[in-house]
Amino acid sequence: MPELVKKVLLWGFVAFLIYFMAFRPEGAAEMFKAIGAGLMAMFQGFGDFLTSLMT
Predict the structure, then answer these.
(1) Which ranges does the record mark as transmembrane (predicted)?
(2) What are phi and psi of 50, to 5 degrees?
(3) Could you give the CA distance from residue 2 to residue 41 in angstroms, rounded to a whole number?
(4) Could you read off the pLDDT tens digit of each residue along the chain, which spans 55 residues?
(5) Cα(36)–Cα(6) distance, integer angstroms
């Protein structure tokens, strides 16, 4: 992808996040909680997989 397109998309995403957090803080908090819970579940599953390989 051209460098200019990447920069525009990145800045657009950052602007959307700032707008979302400013005008819908409850929704933003719930979204980040859900992302965090998903990441924790993914890493927990990865840890369980590695543990089962070692035993």
Answers:
(1) 32-51
(2) -65, -35
(3) 35
(4) 689 999 999 999 999 989 988 999 999 899 899 999 999 999 999 999 999 999 8
(5) 25
